[in-house]
């Protein structure tokens, strides 16, 4: 896109705009110049560190910490604030984070944590840090797969820039926009699109904290980001939905937007929501355009520089309209999973395409429709991707659990909920839900635990998850 800086944060580095309220999180804000100087003070403290962990709360501290890490040329590792001790320790250990940024009043780090660097928003610096190589790692985002602990997806500065430039083109996103959202700041949607996007484009940001409908209604923005759960709740409050009529774009992602919610939003706000598609490993690759059609159930066309194809189970190409696995390639793809060459190999084809694991169709006009997962073990709940295997491992850590199988089951608000089937001794549903919530992120806890006498298995001993509802 013409006129967009090559370096990831050069708009922030070049600005002289000291008007208040450029970046607001909750009821606290910074001007562009204040943000740059506060983040530069953090970068001064991080000089020489290769990887830095940042507790990713919905706060100005997170924004300043992430930007400071990027200015310093470090790879930033966001840590979910609701991560239990097992998950947090895994992320810190697996990422090799050398330092941990912490705001005043944060809980004391334990012995297993890296050294803590205080994060003080009152400090300012005007040091000029050199621009890192575009190929350097910007973020290591931990994402759940179908088995085991989360894997660290390594995202380069170049890939993030390519994604954001493609979205700026597709969405006609300019410095005149004001973006509002209430998304978590430890994954692609909330952090890359929702924080680094405004910093690259030069638009203002309003993070509303918890994404309550009334907070969206009061934001007065031109663009709003949300996941289907947020949009469903806004559509259920007509007054809040009508308050968004003055917006330019309502963007939905992270899971399919139900058609009734699409229709309700269109009627109440006067805007047909714009849907897009992506993954942690690919960033956003496909999106409806601001100047193009927006049809419920479709996620648009590939962004500039991105190619897609739909293949059969043998990897053979399929014609338009046929259903098969969606594969992508282009400049937005990640560099691989940290310390996991085996997982890397499983996601790449011999000719260089990334296997998304999603089933899709592409119409004659290029419009993509995501049908579902190729596997049954990845649960999409409230905009989060949750690996069934990780929840199963947490349940099996309970001394009273002998067997566990986890699936996604329909939920009217979340899309899917985490449902666990457990064979155990002297355990109760509430006890197991609380146990998982203490060890993993709270959103990964089962919403329902069904205690059963046995799990259905095939002749090879593999649990047949399709038969769990029969037990």
TrEMBL record:
Residues 390-462 form the AMP-binding enzyme C-terminal domain. The keyword NADP does not apply. PANTHER family: ACYL-COA SYNTHETASE, ACYL-COA SYNTHETASE FAMILY MEMBER 3. InterPro entries: AMP-bd_C, AMP-bd_C_sf, AMP-binding_CS, AMP-dep_synth/lig_dom, ANL_N_sf. Residues 13-338 form the AMP-dependent synthetase/ligase domain. Keywords: Ligase. It holds the Pfam family AMP-binding. One of its GO terms (molecular function) is ligase activity. The lineage of its organism: Bacteria, Bacillati, Actinomycetota, Actinomycetes, Micromonosporales. Belongs to the ATP-dependent AMP-binding enzyme family. This is Fatty acid CoA ligase FadD36. The keyword Ligase applies.
């Amino acid at each position: 896109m013409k006129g967009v800086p090559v370096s990831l944060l050069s708009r922030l580095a070049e600005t002289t705009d000291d008007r208040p309220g450029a970046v607001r999180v909750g009821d606290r804000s910074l001007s562009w110049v204040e943000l740059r100087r506060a983040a530069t003070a953090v970068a001064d403290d991080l000089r020489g560190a290769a990887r830095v962990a940042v507790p990713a709360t919905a706060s100005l501290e997170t924004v300043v910490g992430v930007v400071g890490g990027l200015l310093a040329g470090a790879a930033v590792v966001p840590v979910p604030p609701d991560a239990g001790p097992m998950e947090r320790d895994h992320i810190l250990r697996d990422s090799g984070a050398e330092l941990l940024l912490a705001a005043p009043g944060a809980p004391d780090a334990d012995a297993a944590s890296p050294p803590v660097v205080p994060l003080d928003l009152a400090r300012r610096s005007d040091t000029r840090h050199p621009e890192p190589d575009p190929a350097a790692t910007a973020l290591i985002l931990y994402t759940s797969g179908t088995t085991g602990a989360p894997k660290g997806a390594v995202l380069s500065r170049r890939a993030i820039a390519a994604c954001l430039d493609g979205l700026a083109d597709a969405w006609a996103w300019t410095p005149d926009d004001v973006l509002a959202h209430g998304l978590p700041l430890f994954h692609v949607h909330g952090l890359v699109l929702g924080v680094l996007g405004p910093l690259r484009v030069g638009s203002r940001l309003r993070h509303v904290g918890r994404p309550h409908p009334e907070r969206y209604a009061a934001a007065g923005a031109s663009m709003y980001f949300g996941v289907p759960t947020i949009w469903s709740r806004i559509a259920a409050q007509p007054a809040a939905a009508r308050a968004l009529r003055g917006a330019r774009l309502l963007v939905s992602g992270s899971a399919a937007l139900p058609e009734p919610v699409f229709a309700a939003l269109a009627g109440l706000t006067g805007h047909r929501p714009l849907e897009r598609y992506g993954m942690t490993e690919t960033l956003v690759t496909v999106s409806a355009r601001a100047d193009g059609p927006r049809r419920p159930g479709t996620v648009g066309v590939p962004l500039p520089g991105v190619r897609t194809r739909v293949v059969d189970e043998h990897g053979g190409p399929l014609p338009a309209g046929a259903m098969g696995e969606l594969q992508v390639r282009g400049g937005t793809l990640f560099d691989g999973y940290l310390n996991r060459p085996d997982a890397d190999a499983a996601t790449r084809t011999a000719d260089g395409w990334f296997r998304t694991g999603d089933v899709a169709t592409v119409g004659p006009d290029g419009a993509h429709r995501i049908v579902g997962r190729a596997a049954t073990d990845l649960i999409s709940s409230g905009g989060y991707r949750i690996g069934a295997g990780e929840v199963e491992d947490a349940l099996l850590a309970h001394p009273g659990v002998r067997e566990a199988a986890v699936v996604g089951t329909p939920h009217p608000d979340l899309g899917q909920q985490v449902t666990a089937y457990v064979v155990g001794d002297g355990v109760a549903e509430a006890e197991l839900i609380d146990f998982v919530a203490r060890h993993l992120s709270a959103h990964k806890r089962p919403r329902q635990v069904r205690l059963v006498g046995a799990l259905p298995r095939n002749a090879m001993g593999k649990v047949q998850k399709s038969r769990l509802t029969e037990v």
